[in-house]
Design goal:
The structure is a single chain. By secondary structure, the protein is an alpha+beta fold. Helices cover about 35% and strands about 25% of the residues. The chain has eleven helices and 14 strands. The strands form three sheets. A seven-stranded antiparallel β-sheet has the order 11-8-10-9-13-14-12, sandwiched between helices. The chain has a five-stranded antiparallel β-sheet with strand order 1-2-6-4-5. A two-stranded antiparallel sheet has the order 3-7. A hairpin with a 4-residue loop joins strand 1 and strand 2. It is globular and about 65 Å long.
Length: about 300
């Protein structure tokens, strides 16, 4: 199933519901046909897109106006996949994850109902925040059909600092407690901390020198961020930890890409664990409310 409009997607899911068929978003139903930029309000730094547009296509479209969606996960996923999978990359240190960049969504529920919430402006607070609700849902609650997004200006320049160290927690602590404002701060465990500064040329140069004076290190090219995303993309598990517990967490890991401010480590092994009973009850309640017939796999 490859709908070209939201209405077609609603008809397909309504038909599947009536027939008692299960549908897996991304496998049985593809959003590749929903790949348009519907609106771009450059003055408001917002846009509305169909969920099947890929980040590379959106990046090219927005760059013509000197703007970007500050979301850089591994690969080239669709906007809908970023939201459903809670995908993010190094820039999440400063700009947040998909749930922080979504202003509004249009969803198609398992029975074909079309539901919208939020708006197209940054300060809109009308209605339930369905965008945050479906973030990380993996397509189990609804099909994400359209998304309104918060944008940022493209930086004039950027510089990267890489610090080789046997004590990443001390480097991270010094940077986070300073007045510096990096766009990205990753620990490439073992042995390196990478810091990205973006903005106007003079400001970036000043921040880079201040960071070097504080923690040492050498200027590097963007290859370290390609490496961070590539290692993240190969990871099999996502481990959560309290940011203050970075040192103890690293001591238990042989290899990882770590986002200290978010308390997330991408590791090369699967991470076990079962959600708490209260979380499981909430998940079941949401599933029963949004997809009572169990259409969405």
């Amino acid at each position: 199933m490859r709908p070209a409009t939201v209405e077609e997607a609603a008809e397909l899911l309504a038909g599947a519901s009536a027939a008692g068929r299960r549908v897996r978003i991304g496998e049985d139903l593809s959003t590749d046909g929903l790949d348009r930029v519907l609106e771009h309000e450059a003055g408001d730094l917002t846009c509305t897109v169909e969920a099947g547009i890929r980040l590379s296509a959106l990046r090219t479209s927005l760059a013509a106006s000197g703007q970007r969606l500050s979301l850089d996960p591994p690969g080239d996923p669709t906007v809908g996949a970023c939201l459903a999978g809670r995908l993010s990359g190094p820039l999440s240190h400063r700009f947040g994850t998909p749930r922080d960049l979504v202003l509004g969504v249009t969803l198609v529920l398992g029975d074909g109902t079309i539901a919208s919430s939020g708006g197209k402006v940054v300060k809109n607070v009308a209605g339930y925040d369905l965008g945050k609700l479906v973030c990380g849902s993996g397509g189990s609650l609804a099909l994400v059909a359209r998304v309104s997004l918060r944008l940022h200006p493209l930086p004039s320049t950027s510089s990267t600092l890489v610090v080789e160290t046997d004590d990443p927690p001390s480097v991270v602590r010094a940077l986070r407690h300073s007045a510096l404002q990096p766009s990205a701060l990753d620990v490439l465990h073992p042995g390196r901390v990478a810091v990205l500064f973006e903005g106007r040329e003079r400001a970036v140069a000043a921040q880079l020198e201040a960071a070097r004076a504080l923690v040492g290190g050498e200027a590097a090219d963007t290859a370290v961020w390609d490496e961070a995303r590539e290692r993240q993309g190969r990871s099999l598990g996502r481990l959560r930890f309290a940011p203050a517990d970075l040192g103890n967490t690293l001591s238990t890991l042989g290899e990882a890409v770590v986002r200290p401010s978010a308390g997330i480590a991408y590791v090369p092994h699967r991470v076990g664990g079962v959600p708490a009973a209260a979380a499981r009850r909430l998940q079941r309640a949401l599933k029963e409310r949004f997809d009572p017939a169990g259409v969405l796999g």
